[in-house]
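Board notes (copied after class):
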Amino acid sequence: MRYGYCIFCDDVRTEIGEKLSFIGVYSGVLMLPEFPFSLPKFCVHVNLITLATEPYRSIVLRCIAPGDRQPLLEERLDAAQLSEQKDVVEDAETSDIPINVVVGASLVFSPLKLRQPGLLTVSAIIDDKPAEIASLRVAQR
């Protein structure tokens, strides 16, 4: 089974040992004082999970702001990011236990301009099929 999730936050930092720190994580809603509004920096960390025996062939991530038809961002993950799955796939072939592969990407918007309240939506085209991943509600206080 394939699935994905997002962490919406103010910043994503790479620490020593390739650990990620998420700063200012939003929990379901981003409250703003008025619209339009511009955040100096906004990040979305996307994780996509699949069985190692069914690795991803292609991934294009999209992020759409409330009220917009065109994506704020459309990013194709490069072959190097996807090729990292191969080591896990080889291990999975010799294991009796199902092993998952996680492909992650951090999307950084600097600035993020929001014109109106609504849903900030992250979706993808995975192996040529559309997939909804997550949304963050954007509201006015």
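Comment from the instructor: The longest strand covers residues 3-14. The longest helix spans residues 85-93.
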